[in-house]
Amino acid sequence: MAILEIKDVSKFFGGLAANLDVSFEVNQGMIMGLIGPNGAGKTTLFNCITGFYPPSRGEIVFDGRRMNGLHPDAVCKLGMARTWQKVRPLAKMSVVDNVMVGALCRTNSLKKARDMANEQLIVVHLENRALFRAGSLPIGERKKLEVARVLATQPKLLLLDEVMGGLNPAESDEIIQLILDIKKLGITQMVIEHDMKAIMRISDRIVVLNSGEKLTEGTPQEVVSNKAVIDAYLGESNA
Amino acid sequence: MRNLMNNARGSSTLPLFLALGAFVLLALVPHFVTSTYALHIMILVFISVITGSAWNILGGYTGQYSVGHAAYFGAGAYTTMILLQYRHVAPWYGIWAGVFVAVVVGLVIGSICFRLRGPYFVLASIAVAEIFRVCALNLTKLTNGAEGILLTQVPPLQIGNTVITDFMSKVPFYYTGLVTALAVIVVTWLVQNSKLGYYFQAIREDQDAAHSLGINLTLYKNAALSLSAIFTSLAGSLYGVYVGFIDPGTVLALDLSVQIVMVCIIGGIGTILGPAVGAIILVPFSEALRSNAIAQALIDSGLVKETSAVGAFLKEQLSHAHLLIYGILLVVVILYMPEGILGFIKKLSARVRKGAA
Q1: Which residues of chain B carry a pLDDT beneath 50?
Q2: Which of B1, B202, B213 sits opposite A153 (nearest CB)?
Q3: Does any domain span residue B283?
Q4: Domain with B258 in it: what CATH number?
Q5: Burial of A52: CB neighbours in 10 Å, binned 0-12, 13-18, 19+
Q6: pTM of the model
Q7: ipTM of the assembly?
Q8: How many angstroms separate the CA of residue B306 from the nearest CA in chain A?
Q9: Is A94 on the interface with B (CB under 8 A)?
Q10: Do residues A28 and A52 lie in contact, with contact meaning Cβ atoms separated by under 8 Å?
Q11: Domain residue limits at B74
């Protein structure tokens, strides 16, 4: 069953089409990979889905509900949460407070929110950092904090924008494990990633974007053997 | 472990107890101090504590640096004074009308300015407050324009036939100011320890991240602004009735907006007691400069001879230089105590503790 349907979504900035008639579906419980060269429109698509940009054309249907025109806070309350390519810790607040801000989306009680936040910190293995200032964490832990914070909003669909960007291989492995753990919790995920090895490992299906348009879609095996993908994405060495 | 974390978290009650202690001590002051001048300064301090703490809710916690808070101060002062002087509505009803007007003004300003971020918001807040000042200056039928409103009489406050106070001395104003100042500090503490406070601080730290975590930015920014406007308006009303005269140049001036922000910068932005500390230091200091008390003290202490060139210069010129000295003080604080006096003390005590451990 599709939890998210993208129907002919386009986003124009002036005359530039950052996304052009992109369509695909994300099924309940799967991990959908979203790849493409720089400037392919991956993050723009995330921004359209989560309400930061209104799509210029097309329709976004989440959980049977049309999402066009909703603000990001309403999108979050309906169960769709995103992380940011550039991490955005609430720097002067403590780690647990950061996660509590996410949890407060579902409760008005600070006590309940703190319990929920502590649970999420255990999921991402940051429980011994709870009282640190978020701004003092190194990049790897900041990425995990982002994930804990969005998990605390109790999403049905999680959109992860390059959570492995800037991490070393060991840290990337931890995030991969984390994404697989989250899948076990039954949360659908859509992942933008540049690390091909990682995305091949975790994705059930992959959508490839190029210059704002959908190039192809399929299982990881289908995608890596697709001639158009190799030409557009993996580039000149195969040309 | 969880217990430990709950206790160690920032919901410290220390600032609240400090404020309550100060409140009790200050409540006793009028029994011992009869100097009207001292009481006058204290009332000005209280008004500054109220406006500073009110600004702090919006500027310090929510991160929206408004330099147009004179608009709410003026809205309160003008509403209360117009009702009192021309419609004979007692001030203890009038102030609530003032609060209502200030919140409406705030929501109008908010709906325009909150579309902007950072320095653009600051500039817009100044511009909108200036619009209100010019309006007050020119709507002479309503506000009496540049002549201002001179209060001729305050009706005595009575319950039944018992007169509580006739507002003839400074004492009733002293207590009104003190109670309101405590109220705004308690409200700040309550905000900090609630969902509201978490959302305000999230907006301050990163608006986009806050937005994506389900925080309705418009709603919560306007909530912060309304809270802030309520107390700023109360301070304005208190000022108007206490001084007995208002005009656009005092209660709607850009100077006043800047003064409100400076109290917070010097005391410590985003802390519960920062604005109170800033007001307690800044108000008497500027008063001492203006009244030439500092030059007089230097001469009296014998450090500088009145007859010498320096003494004569100080006596003649120091009071005129109060804005200059004010400015220098601000620069020094920003350079050496970027988190204000309270932040500086916290850092110092942390260093001492580290040294001891």
Answers
A1: 1-10
A2: B213
A3: no
A4: 1.10.3470
A5: middle
A6: 0.89
A7: 0.90
A8: 51
A9: yes
A10: no
A11: 15-272
